[in-house]
Amino acid sequence: MGLLTEGRPLPWPETKALAEHVRRHGIEQFINHYHKLKDRKGDTLKWGDEIEYILVRYDEQQKKARVVLKSQALLEVLNEKEETNPHACKSLWRPEFGAYMIEGTPGKPFEGFLTHFNMLEPNMRYRREEVTELLERNECILSLTNFPRLGCPEFTYPIYLPQPNNPKSITMSKYYPDEATFEGHPRFKTAAKNVRMRRGEKVAIKVKVFKDKNTQFPVEGSPANEPDMVVLDATGLGMGCGCLQVTFQATDMQEARALYDQLAVMCPIMLALTAASPIYRGYLTETDCRWHIISSSVDCRTPEERGLNPQCGNKYYIPKSRCDSISSYLSPKGEKYNDLHLPYHQRDYDRLRQGGVDHLLAQHVAHLFVRDTISLLDEKVHQNDKEETDHFENIQSTNWQTMRFKPPPPNSPIGWRIEFRPCDVQISDFENAAIVCFVILLTRVLLAYDLDMLMPLSRVDENMKTAQKRDACRKGKFWFRKNVLHPKDKQSHIYMNNSSNNSGYEERCGDKMSFDDYELMTMNEIFNGKSNGFPGLIPLIYKFLEPMDIDGNTFGVIDKYLRYMQQRASGKIITGAQWIREQVLQHPEYRQDSIVSERINYDLLKTIQRIQNGKDVEHILRSG
């Protein structure tokens, strides 16, 4: 979930009063840090994944499954290895929003060697096994985007009940008890409460129900004028979803900015391709993935900022939640495609420009800082702006956008990084590894061929809406460039561990492009290509790999992942969301009423557990 610092959280009135303090000092910290590191060059590719898992407990007699609230106890054991011998750890573990969630990463980054793809899936498998050893026999760890009955009665173990009428409740939710939020770090409950306090009301997440033959309306808790909506009213019902993220290090700031822009175009594409969460609060819905749900769950905008009331004072209309798609490109090549309304405080932008930050980066940072802090620790109020960056990271880490541009930490060997954030987590380690492999190889191809996938951000946002529709991977069409190859493409190849040559970066990115037409394409066309047209991303990756001296085992692993991605994009293999739908619709207890009962949920999760344990591979090979 971002920056986790220990300390005493301030109550909302004090946090609110210090919002300008955090904003002012956060910007000063960024300026100081920027000048120390803007000329840093020569870092090599390092990369890693983050998987957010959920913990499940089965009641074998009653055939029920619940999330088990024991992540804090597990972390105390798992983190002992890191504390005693951090250099020997094969995995690292961190808390997540839910008390039933846990985040796992490799113990150290993978590096820029193709052979490291051989290590990825085994490391994911090791993480799962490491946690499983600490669980009881009727418990398991699942890489599942959303627990299907999250928010239903008695969905936790131990059982806790929501307290919507208790003013001391964190969220005052009708569906999500406070105890389901992670207790071991103050940030999570503080942020959940302050989202509600700043917004002036509970969050309102609305998801349209999939209408089946016997679906009854209105849905319980739906608004009078929206009887077909499942309503979720707590931050935990969105931030309690899991995901798959990929972070990688660039050779320098310019390369990081260029890759940030190019991959932003891929965010809705990968969201649709990885869609794996069609069920919310026990209902089949018309969405296949989590993005709108998490976006709404942390939407702390006031009515004025949402455009619901006349603007007053210094309030700005802010079109998006603090968790949403990006709103501006960072590289000079992307500037002409910045066609979205980008609110920021002029004073903040001016200070960044006076501090020597270029226009594109200044407006990006100023836009991040249009948000107030939603969690502030007493011990971190007063900082040394020349040496510390906690105020900057406070705002940066609570802007949960599809991409994150990450400056190097203070006094660290870590370089400029990019975090790719849109993907739903997949059911199996194989699928997660295939997605990570594809993303990393795509970054190499982007640099090797100087590909240009940029288009107006308004089109990217249109794609985000398309990506979240039911079966968008097979049925949707997405805006994409007709030609991504540079007219002066030299067909050069860079190896995984080579730094890119950024000489002439400013001039090249400033060129007028004559091939910036784009059109609606299917997922199959984007990944696999069109006859006499767009070559396809996967064929470009194979072309990049062709001249390399790759051992047979390594090529076999990469080839297996890429062919899987090709088949997912073509529809020959369905998404996790479509597979989950089929499991529900074909269940003997399903009543064609859109409801995922306790027994259906139990059987579904048992099947998923078998797949993850390698005992039932039909999911991976399932033909559409």
From TrEMBL:
EC number of this enzyme: 6.3.2.2
Biological processes, Gene Ontology terms: glutathione biosynthetic process
UniProt-recorded Gene Ontology molecular function terms: ATP binding; glutamate-cysteine ligase activity
A single cellular component GO annotation: glutamate-cysteine ligase complex
Keyword field: ATP-binding, Glutathione biosynthesis, Ligase, Nucleotide-binding
SUPFAM superfamilies linked to this entry: Glutamine synthetase/guanido kinase
Superkingdom of the source species: Eukaryota
Protein name: Glutamate--cysteine ligase
Naturally occurring in which organism (per UniProt): Stomoxys calcitrans (Stable fly)
